[in-house]
Design a protein that fits this description.
Layout lengths: L7 E3 L5 E3 L2 E2 H11 L8 E6 L3 H14 L6 E6 L8 H13 L1 H9 L3 H8 L7 H6 L16 E2 L2 H5 L4 E4 L3 H14 L8 E4 L5 E3 L5 E3 L1 H9 L6 E5 L4 H5 L4 E6 L2 H11 L4 E6 L2 H24 L4 H22 L7 H14 L1 H11 L9 E2 L3 E2 L1 H13 L6 E2 L6 E2 L6 H10 L8 H7 L6 H10 L12
Parallel strand pairs: 4-5, 4-7, 5-6, 7-8, 8-11, 12-13
Antiparallel strand pairs: 1-2, 2-3, 9-10, 11-12, 14-15, 16-17
Length: about 450
């Protein structure tokens, strides 16, 4: 791949080395931590086959898949999802543009079905093409072949590590089902959640429920065994070996060895103890990415208009982080980096653009063919509901009376009216920016920094 750094080499004993680190030694070291015997492979399953979940599984398969007696990875997705004729035609073009992929499919006697699908003589299914390395949400980026399982019980019952690649809106339901298959388990699995999204609960006090919390509640797996991995990156670019970094957050027992195990020359994984806050920030940036896409489309990519929006949306995010975090300044870099990459190339910004252009509409829902779940939509509703609670009231800077925090977040309010109640069109986002009554974004930041805003109860913490 042009522009990428490929730092693998073959040692004289046949084992693979990455930048001086023997992959087999890394694998053995992690296996020892789990107490795995010589003939008992490390079993990893990725639950959900969206872009990030599929790429994550493919990266591990490419790194460790050669050690078959020591490592196994599989990916679960629901069966029966048909590939549209237009997608099949595009997929055929992708295959024929990549000699390595074409040769691989011919070798595996798998090419003919793509020819038949291109001609309309056959229907392909998402789980079927995933086995050949094609994720339905990013067919332009062929992955390595993957072991695909469509039976959830078969996928998870003996897994040492479960990777949650599901949207936050599906996480609780699927892991409640998984918990039924773990009732007789002796060992406790490790769960790594890739999901960025939140739910809001109002009882006993208003608070946020993150995917890791949903998993903990649904399965009873101790929270020290549930971690979050996220960072400013685009799945397809990571698979193409473009340099990227991420953080794995959670209890020290597992986050440090996992960071070492997952780290690759082009994908640097740091570790951090702040699980919930990083997870919430991953959901927050999706909210404002949708609005950024709308502004870009409605102003014909005006740099000035986008910068005005960026000033307002970042001030709102800073305002919200002061409510959610005791030391919000530590989140500024990671949050802005994640927001930046999402605005540049993320699916949430794309959704906002397509909505504003009229190429998709709100009646199509927030699961879009070829893109997957647009998690920012549900996050808009969750953050609005949370910040609308009168019990969280703050003093209004000008009117000097208590108001709900959402009253200081005009962009969030407007996105709620566009996406959730649908009482306004996408044009309303521009009206919100042009409203002469809006305060200077700097004022919002100063208010947040000069008041004791932090509410630990919002993250369900004492």
């Amino acid at each position: 791949m042009v522009g990428s750094i490929e730092a693998k080499s073959l040692l004289s004993n046949g084992s693979v080395q990455q930048n001086g680190l023997n992959l087999e030694e890394k694998l053995d070291e992690f296996r020892r931590l789990l107490g795995k015997s010589d003939k008992d492979p490390l079993r990893i399953v990725s639950v959900g086959a969206g872009a990030w979940g599929s790429v994550f599984a493919a990266l591990l398969q490419e790194s460790y898949g050669g050690f078959r007696e020591k490592f196994q990875i599989r990916i679960w997705r629901r069966p029966g999802r048909a590939v549209s004729r237009s997608t099949a035609e595009h997929l055929f073009e992708v295959i024929n543009s990549r000699e390595d992929v074409l040769r691989r499919l011919i070798r595996r006697c798998a090419y003919l079905k793509y020819v038949e699908a291109r001609l309309g003589d056959r229907t392909l299914y998402a789980d079927e093409i995933l086995k050949d390395g094609f994720c339905l949400n990013m067919v332009d980026t062929p992955l390595c072949p993957l072991k695909v399982v469509t039976n959830l019980q078969e996928a998870v019952w003996d897994a040492d590590i479960v990777v949650n690649g599901l949207p936050s809106t599906e996480t609780r339901q699927v892991f409640e089902e998984i918990s039924k298959y773990w009732k007789e388990r002796i060992t406790v699995p490790i769960i790594i959640s890739l999901s960025k999204g939140i739910e809001t609960a109002l009882e006993p006090v208003p608070h946020i429920i993150t995917p890791t919390k949903m998993i903990h509640q649904a399965t009873g797996v101790p929270i020290e065994n549930v971690l979050y991995l996220g960072g400013p990156n685009i799945a397809a670019e990571i698979y193409n070996k473009e340099y990227a970094n991420a953080r794995i957050c959670g209890a020290e027992k597992w986050r440090k060895p996992l960071a070492k195990f997952l780290r690759q020359p082009h994908f640097i994984v740091w570790d951090n103890s702040d699980l919930v806050t990083h997870e919430v920030m991953g959901g927050l940036k999706n909210v404002y990415a949708i609005g950024a896409g709308m502004v870009a489309a409605l102003t014909n990519e005006s740099a000035t208009s986008k910068s005005v929006y960026f000033a307002h949306c970042t001030s709102e995010m800073i305002f919200i982080t002061h409510l959610l975090a005791e030391e919000p300044e530590k989140l500024a870099g990671p949050l802005l980096a994640d927001t930046y990459v999402t605005l540049l190339k993320g699916r949430n910004a794309w959704y906002g653009q397509m909505l504003a252009k009229g190429e998709i509409n709100r009646d199509m829902g927030d699961s879009i063919s070829g893109k997957g779940m647009i998690q920012g939509v549900s996050a808009v509703g969750a953050f609005y509901q949370l910040l609308s609670q009168s019990s969280l009231s703050i003093l209004h800077s000008e009117e000097k009376k208590p108001v709900a925090p959402v009253e200081s977040c005009p962009i969030l309010k407007t996105l709620y009216k566009i996406l959730i109640t649908r009482e306004q069109s996408t044009q309303a986002i521009l009206q919100a920016l042009r409203d002469e009554t809006l305060n200077d974004p700097r004022d919002r930041i100063e208010i947040a920094q000069s008041h004791a805003f932090y509410r630990p109860s919002l993250l369900d913490q004492p």
